[in-house]
Design brief:
The chain folds into two domains: 64 residues, Phosphorylase Kinase, domain 1, CATH 3.30.200; 163 residues, Aminoglycoside phosphotransferase (APH), C-terminal lobe (Aminoglycoside 3'-phosphotransferase, Chain: A, domain 2, Alpha-Beta Complex). Helices cover 45% and strands 16% of the residues. The chain contains ten helices and nine strands. Helix 4 packs antiparallel against helix 5 and helix 4 crosses helix 9. The longest helix has 16 residues. InterPro entries: Aminoglycoside_PTrfase, Kinase-like_dom_sf. This is Aminoglycoside phosphotransferase family protein.
Length: 245
């Protein structure tokens, strides 16, 4: 039996280890079994779409933790280029990659609108009137039928040029690409605020989308993120959702 090798990466939800020539993603929390099968199911759908995502090989329990065995991503992370390179080039490269995801039909993936609605309904710190307003706002936004990554940011992109691989597809869904871009905006707004709007503009330029149509998703995307256990972002998310000054 192959032994679990060195740690390749670590995040809030999981750790990724060498496992022979493959990568083993082990989830941390009690819901790790469900998360493992969910990500494996998503990856199996993406495989037939020929997207630059890891191929899933197995789901199982490894040393008492549930995880997914998958192709190993290139060691280089796009975030290094994104952080160190000034100008629009890395924004445009990332936007084109995001666009390539959104060109694919999302049949078989969970509904993004249903996920956002469920998260807004259970988000803590919202009074009844704010929750109702956000749900009505969500209902007014256009649904879609494209693949949405759900957590698209530079640290989930590995490799370069034609060798890109996008990882962390646990929250992949079927929905409106502009909502997926807005999710990236919200993530960058916290991690690299000077790049957040530039990314929205780069995606809009690459696709002919309206910047205002992307930003229209901010309140609902921010409110939904309140359920993700990122306490250091909560004050900022409440502001983005229009719930605090």
């Amino acid at each position: 039996m192959t032994e679990i090798g060195r740690l390749l990466g670590s995040g809030k939800e999981a750790e990724v280890f060498e496992y022979g020539a493959l990568a083993l993603k082990l989830y941390r929390r009690a819901a790790s079994k469900a998360s493992s099968f969910r990500e494996a199911a998503n990856l199996s759908i993406l495989e037939r779409l020929a997207l630059p995502a890891p191929k899933v090989h197995a789901v199982g329990e490894f040393d008492g933790r549930w995880g997914v065995l998958m192709d190993r991503a290139p060691s280089s992370c796009f975030a290094n280029q994104f952080v160190s390179t000034a100008g629009r080039a890395p924004l445009e490269d990332m936007a084109q990659l995001h666009r390539s995801i959104h060109e694919k039909p999302g049949d078989g993936l969970p509904s993004l609108m249903a996920r956002l609605s469920a998260r807004i309904r259970r988000a803590e710190g919202l009074d009844a009137a704010s929750r109702k307003r956000l749900l009505l706002e969500l209902d007014s936004l256009p649904d879609g039928d494209r693949v949405c990554h759900g957590d698209f940011h530079p640290w989930n992109i590995h490799g370069s040029g034609q060798g890109f691989m996008i990882v962390d597809w646990l929250d992949a869904s079927c929905g409106n690409p502009l909502a997926d871009v807005c999710r990236t905006y919200v993530l960058l707004h916290h991690a690299m605020p000077d790049r957040a709007m530039g990314y929205v503009e780069a995606y809009a330029s690459a696709t002919g989308s309206e910047v205002s149509s992307i930003l229209a998703w901010i309140p609902t995307i921010a409110a939904a993120r309140l359920t993700e256990g990122v306490a250091n972002e909560n004050a900022e998310l409440l502001r983005l959702a229009g719930l605090s000054p």
